[in-house]
Design brief:
The protein has helices at about 5-20, 510-535; strands at about 40, 50, 60-65, 70-75, 80-85, 90-95, 105, 110-120, 120-130, 135-145, 155-160, 180, 190-195, 210-215, 220, 235, 245-250, 255-265, 265-275, 280-285, 295, 310-315, 320-325, 330, 340-345, 360-365, 370-380, 390, 395-400, 405-410, 415, 420-425, 445, 450, 465-475, 480-485, 495-500. The chain is mostly beta strands. The protein has five domains: about 5-145, Immunoglobulin-like (Sandwich), CATH 2.60.40; about 155-275, Sandwich (Immunoglobulin-like); about 280-400, Immunoglobulin-like (Sandwich), CATH 2.60.40; about 405-505, Immunoglobulin-like, CATH 2.60.40; about 510-535. Strands 2-3-10-9-5-7 form a six-stranded mixed sheet, with helices on one face. A five-stranded mixed sheet has the order 12-19-18-14-16, with no helix packed on it. Strands 20, 22, 23, 25 and 26 form a five-stranded antiparallel sheet that branches. Strand 9 and strand 10 (about 135-145) form a beta hairpin.
Length: about 525
């Protein structure tokens, strides 16, 4: 036996021994057939590819069914060997020198097609090498019992979307489409999109098995997405193209929540819940979130200030479900200065959204002639019958800009470490509390003996006429001073005052000790005077 032949046989034994996962390691005498020299085609297979993958990478092998055939086309002259490791064998090809069923010698100029047949489930490799180099080109496969027929939840999608043109790209529903608003056309529609695949991500073969959709909760279903009527159970007759399908879920403009399930044979391929809203039945105003001190400044609009003159309201259907009404509310029967106001689109209010449970609207108040307390209701009109729906009475105040201000502490004396609250109250020129969201322009606050973690800024604003600041009493017991100043219409001077910090551990503060000494001296002086007076008698 020649040295050359011996080396070939040693190389073959080494390749077989290394196994499926290590065939990228070449025998010492092997030569390379470059990636460009070897191509793989699907022709000649007796069954379809499960998943084509990128067979030159072990991370993305090609999946093929047992009994399937794979053609390996050698596109460039190659003198060497093609070795199968795993459950497959060579059954035909352009090469005539076959060592055995898994090792095929490629003779010089042996370009053409060589066909292998898959014999057992599991991974197998096809490695190529020749006599003149040490590199090896390997192609990776995984054989499975069958493919392209079953359903796999891991690679399939069911998704609620808004339009018939949408497709299922994940199992995450479009959240905005899980709640459907009242529809003036009389037909409320949600869409369930399906993309059914087998375990290899290949379209499920649906021929012979129907898709059956069932709804509970009063909705109807139809596999024709342009339909306006449906049934509680809808059957999509078995067809080869049903692996990608669309189901329309229909409401009737009355409040209801529907659960929709879709089965494919023994598998449940979708289980979704969609809520449908009815027409408006009530409207309410949240006083805690709304601005109830509006501003009209000497005949001009209140200005583009976020949340100023804004009402936060909620519209609900007859079942208590929150809805976004088709039109903005209007003011009904306003009194006092509110008669000069109209409601705008909420540009400077809170964003309208079902997620937040309500919506907002801005008021624009101009040509002010009346200020002070007033009241109004919000009014909307139902889409179904044109009947007006009103909120409860809202009491509010019409005010102007800042003219004077006051400041006061919640206590006159604090213990060391106490939380201290300073309340600043703003008034307009009529003595009414200043309008909401009026800023504390040029505000400056100095407090002796205390600290704050949030310093006042001129961007701070009044709500219901007040702004509160928090301070922490220091560790030294004594009497301290404070001052507050800001720009106001009256050019008011800074406010000043004092407060006391005591230390419970020492019993009394320095100021209290001093005051006690003064009282004691005064008492002694009084007694001396009384004694002197008695001696003169």
């Amino acid at each position: 036996m020649s040295i050359k032949t011996l080396r070939k046989r040693i190389a073959l034994v080494a390749v077989s021994a290394l196994g499926v996962g290590l065939l990228s390691v070449a025998p010492a005498s092997a030569g390379a057939i470059l990636v460009a020299d070897v191509t793989i085609s699907d022709a000649g297979q007796t069954s379809g590819v499960c998943a084509s993958g990128t067979s030159t990478s072990s991370a993305t092998p090609r999946y093929i069914a047992v009994g399937g055939r794979q053609d390996i086309t050698i596109s460039t002259n190659a003198d060497g060997y093609a070795v199968i490791t795993g459950g497959a064998k060579w059954i035909s090809g352009s090469s005539t020198d076959v060592i055995n069923s898994t090792q095929k010698k490629l003779t010089l100029n042996a370009t053409g097609t060589n066909t292998l047949e898959v014999t057992a489930a599991g991974p197998f490799n096809v490695a190529y090498f020749n006599d003149s180099d040490t590199s090896v080109e390997t192609h990776y496969f995984i054989a499975v019992a069958s493919c392209g027929a079953g359903y796999s939840a891991a690679t399939s999608y069911a998704q609620i979307n808004d339009a018939t043109s949408d497709t299922a790209t994940s199992n995450i529903d479009a959240s905005a489409d899980l709640v459907k608003a009242y529809d003036t056309t009389g037909v409320q529609s949600a869409y369930l999109d399906l993309d059914l695949n087998d375990a290899y991500g290949v379209a499920t073969v649906t021929t012979g098995v129907s898709l059956i959709a069932t709804a509970t909760g009063g909705c109807t279903l139809n596999w024709d997405t342009s339909a306006t009527t449906g049934t509680a159970v809808a059957v999509d007759t078995a067809a080869a193209s049903n692996d990608t399908e669309d189901l329309v879920i229909l409401g009737d403009n009355t409040p209801r929540t529907c659960r929709v399930t879709v089965t494919f044979g023994a598998d449940t391929v979708a289980d979704k819940t969609v809520s449908f809203r009815g027409d408006a039945a009530s409207i309410s105003v949240s006083a805690a979130d709304s601005s109830l001190v509006w501003g009209a400044v000497d005949g001009s609009a209140s200005g583009a200030t976020t949340n100023a003159d804004a009402l936060f309201y909620t519209v609900k259907d007859s079942a208590g479900g929150v809805i976004v009404h088709s039109a903005l509310p209007t003011l009904s029967s306003p009194t006092g200065g509110f008669a000069q106001c109209t409601l705008a689109d909420g540009t400077y209010g809170r964003t309208s959204s079902l997620v937040y449970g309500g919506a907002s609207v801005d008021a624009v108040c101009s040509n002010a002639t009346v200020f002070g307390a007033g009241e109004f209701k919000l009014k909307i009109v139902r889409q179904s019958d044109g009947v007006a729906v009103y909120s409860d009475l809202v009491k509010a105040t019409m005010s102007k800009t800042l003219y004077t201000f006051e400041a006061a502490w919640d206590k006159a004396s604090y213990n060391v470490g106490d939380i201290m609250t300073l309340t600043i109250t703003g008034k307009d020129s009529g003595g009414r509390v200043v309008r909401d969201y009026a800023t504390l322009a040029d505000v400056e606050i100095a407090v002796g003996g205390a600290s704050t973690t949030v310093a006042p800024t001129e961007a701070d604003y009044f709500i219901n006429g007040v702004k509160k600041y928090k301070y922490i009493a220091g560790t030294t017991a004594a009497a301290y001073g404070w001052t507050v100043s800001m720009t106001s219409g009256s050019a008011q001077a800074a406010l000043v005052g004092n407060y006391t910090i005591t230390n419970p551990a020492s019993g009394v503060s320095n100021a209290e000790v001093l005051a006690a000494i003064v009282k004691l001296i005064a008492s002694i002086n009084k007694q001396i005077k009384a004694l002197q007076k008695s001696l003169k008698r």
